[in-house]
Design a protein that fits this description.
Length: about 450
């Protein structure tokens, strides 16, 4: 065998181990063969040149167990050697991962040293802050009004019902809604902000105006001042206080969204319909707020929370707040409450006519004939009859304000006092006429 020149030999580093073939034969390129041609593998009976043995043995493969170097070149790498290499690589990766984890743990530990720990934590004292609020702020108004707002609980055929109310005078008179106490079976429990609870008696109630007056035996009560609902304007800030969903002492805020909003509440089937010329607000009002005060930023009551609109325009339902609530204007409530205190009952104005509920407007039509129960279209000698109105007339306006339907006409009439004179615009046989009607009175 002829040895290859050593000065032309390619260093073994240029032939990585993973490019060498496996198996029983070893076809390696001859060192120094610039063309890349393969040299014949050494014969198993032929001694390899000593130079090759000396130069390349340690780089490519370990010697045989008995020290024999027959073959003169690197021993072939079988599956075992490749597996060993892969395992070695995995060991390196594991070591690197462990080192990285150690570094991360060290950094986290350093960070933890700067954060709050369970043992020995010291967050410091709370900063000094005043609980005083400027006069006229929502907080200051709420603080002044809350002691005069009560929670009312009654037992009804359907279970326990909760409402709200407010102190009217230091003698123990309390204002609330009629629908809060109308179904009471037994006593009426009243709870104050102080936590004291007592039993109340009903002084009087008005289904027509959805108002009631209660009396409790208590001392040192603080009455809420009554404001002027005619002086409020759309956009004025207001505060509603009560016990929505049984949560006593709840304060919500909003604005006056509209005035003179015709609202019908109560149970028509039970004859307890209430027609309210309401103040509308977007202050959150929910079931349980009924009877509580709607106050301005002077802390004066400008309305008695009474009804809410629900999806589908159902008023007075049990759904939650959608930003459309209604309160009885305090000027209307004032007259009714005075009557309830003085007489135990209230009166409301009427024109003495039955309206056709099937008429879809515009306007409110006087019934053309007597009802099934015998009620005539016009009360003989009543206000409308004396003024000259006839069955079938359609009332389209009151005091110059258009009337969309029957409910709107009733609300407009009940915003007056008995004995007031109003001007009705009436359409008869395609022609409009005006009639002056002096309102009568009835109890309810």
């Amino acid at each position: 065998m002829t040895d290859q020149p050593q000065d032309d030999a390619r260093p073994p580093e240029e032939t990585p181990w993973w490019s060498r073939p496996s198996g029983d034969t070893w076809d390696t390129p001859a060192f120094g063969a610039g063309s890349g041609a393969a040299a014949p593998a050494p014969s198993w009976g032929e001694a390899a040149p000593s130079e090759a043995t000396t130069e390349h043995h340690d780089l490519w493969a370990p010697p045989d167990e008995d020290g024999d170097t027959i073959g003169g070149g690197p021993r072939p790498r079988g599956p075992r050697s490749r597996v060993a290499a892969v395992l070695a690589g995995l060991v390196v990766l594991v070591l690197l991962a462990g080192a990285a984890g150690g570094v991360a743990g060290y950094l986290l530990a350093r960070h933890a040293d700067r954060s709050v720990t369970i043992d020995g934590a010291d967050l410091g004292a709370a900063p000094a802050r005043s609980v005083q609020r400027p006069e006229g702020s929502i907080a200051s108004v709420a603080a002044a009004v809350l002691p005069s707002v009560v929670q009312i609980k009654v037992s009804t055929a359907q279970g326990e019902a909760t409402g709200s109310g407010f102190v009217l005078d230091e003698k123990g008179l309390i204002v609330t809604n009629n629908h809060v106490v109308s179904g009471a079976q037994g006593g009426v429990d009243v709870s104050f902000a102080s936590g004291k609870t007592t039993t109340a008696t009903v002084v009087g109630r008005s289904p027509s105006y959805d108002l009631a007056v209660l009396r409790v035996r208590a001392s040192n009560l603080v009455a809420l001042p009554l404001g002027n609902s005619d002086s409020v304007v759309v956009g004025d800030p207001v505060i509603a206080i009560g016990s929505p969903l049984g949560l006593s002492g709840t304060v919500t805020t909003g604005i006056i969204s509209a005035k003179n909003r015709p609202v019908t509440a109560g149970e028509r089937a039970e004859g307890d319909s209430s027609y309210i010329n309401a103040v509308q607000t977007d202050a959150a009002i929910n079931p349980g707020n009924s009877g509580g005060p709607l106050v301005d930023l002077d802390g004066e009551v400008i309305g008695v929370n009474s009804a809410i609109a629900t999806v589908g325009s159902v008023l007075g339902g049990e759904s939650g707040n959608i930003g459309v609530g209604f309160a009885i204007p305090i000027n209307q409530a004032r007259r009714t409450v005075e009557q309830l205190i003085n007489n135990g009952e209230a009166q409301f104005p009427i024109i003495g006519a039955s309206l056709d509920g099937s008429f879809d407007g515009p306007g409110a039509r006087i019934a053309a004939k007597a009802a099934d129960d015998g009620t005539p279209p016009l009360v003989a000698g009543g206000p409308a009859d004396r003024a000259g109105l006839r069955p079938g007339d359609v009332i389209t306006a009151i005091d110059g304000a258009n009337v969309a339907g029957s409910a709107e006409l009733i609300v407009a009439i009940r915003s007056h006092r008995p004995g007031d004179t109003v001007t009705l615009t009436v359409r008869r046989s395609g022609h409009d006429r005006t009639f002056r009607v002096t309102l009568g009175a009835t109890k309810g």
